[in-house]
Amino acid sequence: MPKEASVLKLSNELLRDILDHIEADPDRSVCIDRRAYLSVESFRPPNPPLPLQAQDIGNFRLVCRRFAELGIPYQFTRIATRFSPAGFQRLEWIVNKAHLAKHTKKFSYLIPFFYVKGKDRLGELLHNANGDLQALDAAYFERKAEAQRNIIHSREDIRVLKKAMLAFKALQHVQILRLQDEADRHLLDYLHEGGDSLTGLVDLQWTPACFHASKTMGEALLHARSPFSRFSGPMTSPESALLSKGIVPQTICSLAERLTCLELNFDDGIDLNENMKELSGLFRTVFTATRNMQAVHIGFPARQPLEMRLEDIFHHIHWEKLRAFGVQAWRLEASEIIALARRHRKTLRGLRLRDVQLKDGSMWKDVLAMLREEMEQLDWVSLRRVDYALHFDEVWAGSMEVSDYAPGGASDSDDEDEFHAHVDIQHDVYESEDGDSDGHSDIDTDHGPDANELALSPDTPSSLPFCTCSRSSFPATADDLGDNGRYVVYQQRKMWEKWVVGSCPEHSSS
C-alpha cells in the first residue's frame, strides 16, 4: 500500500514558496537606486496583513517547531509600533523573544499628534460643540491624552525603545510616521475650522510629537549601537528639526555617519523658507558626516516649493558612493541642478526632480542635455510635475487654496496608492507627503495610473541606441525637445525622461 503524502515532508524551499503566496517575501525589497524605492520602501506606510493572511500564517506556525521557525520572518521582519501603552507592550513582548527579534530589519514608529499641556479640556470642547462632534466620545480622547502624558513622564517609551534597538541585531531601516485615526481626523478638522477660539480649549500639535519621537529614537539607536543605515521621515516638521539644533553635534554626527540612505519630506508648517535657512548649518553637519551615503531625498509640499539655493542644504558635498538623488518642490536655477549632478556623474543611477520649478532665465533643455551627455551610469530620471516657476505661480494665482494635487483638479494618486491625502489602514491614517511613485503607463496624464504605479521601472542602460524604425522622429539634440521656457506638459516630461537615458520615446515601455 503506497504511503500517504505528508506536508511535513515538503522541503523548506517549497514551504517558503507557499508562504510567499500568503504574504510576500519579507526579505524581498526594492533596491535603493531603483525608481520605485521611495514610495515602496521609504515613504509607504506599513501594510498590516489582512486578517485571513495573519491567521493563515499564525496557523501555519502552530503545526510544528519547523513550521514555526519558517514562519517567523513573515511576521517579524518588519515591525510597526504605535506610541501607545498597547503598542509598547506588544513591542516589549517581541523583544523579550530573541528568536523573533533577531529577524527584524525594518522598524516603523507610528506617532500621533501630541496634546498640548493645559489645552486638553476635551469634555468642555465636546459639550460646547452643539452636536458637531456628537459622534465623538470625550472619554476616548481623555484616555489618549492621559496615556500620552504617562508615557512621556515615566519614560516608558525610551525604556522599551532602548530594549528593542538592542534586540534588533539585524535592523537596517528606521521610519517615523505620523498616525491618525478617524476620530483624531474629525477632531483636528473641527479645531482647524474653529481657529483660536477652540485651540484655547484643546490643542494638538505635530511639532512636539515629531521632535520627541526623533529624539527618543535617536537616543535608543545610539544606546544600542544599532547597525541601522537607513532613515525615513515622510512628514518631518521643520520646527522639530530646529529643536534638534540643541542636541550635541557629536550625537548627531554619530547617528549620521551610519547612514547610507536618508529620505526626508518636510511638511509646510509656518515660515518654511526661514526655518530651512536656519537649518542650513545642521544639514552641513549631517551631510558632512555621511561619508557612505548611497541615496538621499529632501522634499517639501508640492503646494509650497522651497525658495533656497540647492547648496544651502547640500553644501557642495560630494558623496563618492551616491547612487540615487532626489529633491521635491523646489524653485531652482538650471545651473544648480547641473552642478550637483555633475559632481556625481560617475556614480548616480537615479535622479528624481519632483515638482521642481525652474526660475526665470533657466531652461529645462540645458539640464536635460547635460544629463544625457555627461552622466555615466544614469538608468532613470523622474520629472514628475516639473515646470517653470512663473507658470506655476500663474496657475495657482486664482486658486482659493493651493493643494498638494497638481493643477487641474484631478488627484495625482490612483486608487491603490493615494499618499498625498491619507492612507486608511484598519481605521488608522498614516500620512506621507510622498504623493506618488515613479512608474510607467500608456495613459497621457499626470493623474492616471502612471501617477502612482508601484511596479519597478525596467533598467534602461544609457548605451541603448534610439529606435531607427521608419515611424521614429525623435529629437536629435536638446534644442529639438520642444522646450519653450514657459511651461511643461505631461507628454514632454515623459518623452524627456526617456530621451535623457537613451530609450526610444515612442516604443519604450519605461
Q: What does this entry look like structurally?
A:
- Helix content is 40%, strand content 15%.
- It has 510 residues and is α/β, with parallel strands linked by helices.
- Strands 1, 2, 4, 6, 7, 8, 9, 10, 11, 12, 13 and 14 form a 12-stranded mixed sheet that branches.
- Helix 17 (311-314) links the parallel strand 8 (295-299) and strand 9.
**Helix run count:** 21
What does the largest sheet look like? 12 strands, mixed
Total strand segments:
14
Note the beta-strand portion: 15-25%
As residue ranges, the low-confidence spans are 39-43, 400-430, 432-466
Give the radius of gyration.
24 Å
How does the SSE layout of this entry go?
Layout: H1 12-22, H2 37-42, H3 51-61, H4 65-76, E1 78-82, H5 85-95, H6 98-101, E2 106-111, E3 114-120, H7 122-127, H8 138-154, H9 156-167, E4 173-181, H10 182-194, H11 196-199, E5 202-205, H12 207-224, E6 230-236, H13 238-243, H14 249-256, E7 261-266, H15 272-278, H16 280-289, E8 295-299, H17 311-314, E9 324-332, H18 334-343, E10 350-358, H19 364-374, E11 380-382, E12 387-388, H20 389-397, E13 423-425, E14 428-431, H21 490-501
Parallel strand pairs: 1-2, 2-4, 4-6, 6-7, 7-8, 8-9, 9-10, 10-11, 10-12
Antiparallel strand pairs: 3-5, 4-14, 13-14
Helix pairs in contact: 3-4, 5-9, 9-12, 14-16, 18-19, 19-21
Structural features:
single chain; 510 residues; alpha/beta; two-stranded antiparallel sheet; 21 helices
